[in-house]
Write a structure and sequence with these properties.
Order of helices and strands: HHHEHHHEH
Low-confidence stretches: 1-42
Shape: rod-shaped
Strand content: under 5%
Number of strands: 2
Mean pLDDT: 83
C-alpha cells in the first residue's frame, strides 16, 4: 500500500493537524457546563457536519476484505503449492535416478569408464534442467505477485479518487500514517463496500 500513502500530500496532513488543533482551541473557550456535556457525549458518533473535512482508511482491513485482493492471494497460494509439488517431484526423480546409477555401479553394471561418465553426465543434465525449471517458476511467481500487487493498488487508488469526487474531502489519509485519529473519521467500511460492489459487477 505504499503507493496509496504517497498520494496523501504533506500539505493535506498539515491541514488535518491544523484542523485538529483548531478544534482543541475552541473547546478551551467553552464554559464548565459545555465541557461536561462534551464529556457525556464523547462516546457518541459525531455529527458529520461538525467533523473536519478529511477522512482516513485502514489499508490492512481493505486488503483483508477486498475480494480482488483475496482472489489474488488465493491464486498466489495455488502457484506456491504447484511449485512445491513440482520441486518434490523433481527431487524424488533425481534421487531415484542417482540410486539407480549407484546400484548399477555396485553391481559392476558399467562395462567401461565411458559408460559410467555418460550416466553421470545425464544425471547432471537432469539436475540442471530441474533447477532451470524451478528457477523459471519462481521468477514467474514473483512477476505475477508484483503485477497482482500493482493491480490491487491501482484499483484501490482509482476507486478512492472516484469516491472523493462526490464527497469532496480535502484529504483521505492512511491510518498507519497517524499516531491517533478520531474513529468517527474512518471510512474504511464504505471504501471496502464500494470496491467489492464494483468488483463483483465486473466479475459477473
Amino acid at each position: 500500500m505504499k503507493k496509496i500513502c504517497h498520494t496523501i500530500s504533506c500539505v493535506a496532513l498539515a491541514l488535518a493537524v491544523s484542523a485538529s488543533f483548531a478544534s482543541c482551541g475552541k473547546s478551551d473557550n467553552k464554559d464548565g457546563d459545555q465541557a461536561k456535556t462534551t464529556v457525556k457525549t464523547k462516546t457518541k458518533k459525531a455529527d458529520p457536519g461538525t467533523l473536519p473535512n478529511y477522512r482516513y482508511v485502514d489499508s490492512d482491513s481493505i486488503l483483508a476484505k477486498y475480494n480482488l485482493a483475496k482472489d489474488y492471494n488465493e491464486e498466489m497460494l495455488r502457484l506456491q503449492n504447484n511449485y512445491e509439488n513440482t520441486e518434490r517431484q523433481r527431487q524424488s526423480a533425481l534421487e531415484g535416478l542417482a540410486r539407480q546409477y549407484q546400484q548399477k555401479m555396485q553391481n559392476n553394471g558399467y562395462m567401461n569408464q565411458q559408460a559410467y561418465e555418460a550416466d553421470m553426465k545425464n544425471l547432471q543434465q537432469r539436475q540442471q534442467s530441474a533447477q532451470n525449471e524451478l528457477g523459471q517458476m519462481q521468477m514467474n511467481m514473483q512477476n505475477q505477485a508484483l503485477e497482482a500487487q500493482k493491480t490491487v493498488q491501482d484499483s484501490i487508488l482509482n476507486y478512492i479518487n472516484e469516491y472523493n469526487k462526490s464527497h469532496n474531502y480535502d484529504a483521505i489519509l492512511m491510518k498507519a500514517a497517524t499516531v491517533y485519529i478520531n474513529p468517527d473519521l474512518d471510512i474504511t467500511d464504505e471504501i471496502i463496500e464500494g470496491l467489492n460492489e464494483r468488483y463483483n459487477k465486473v466479475k459477473k
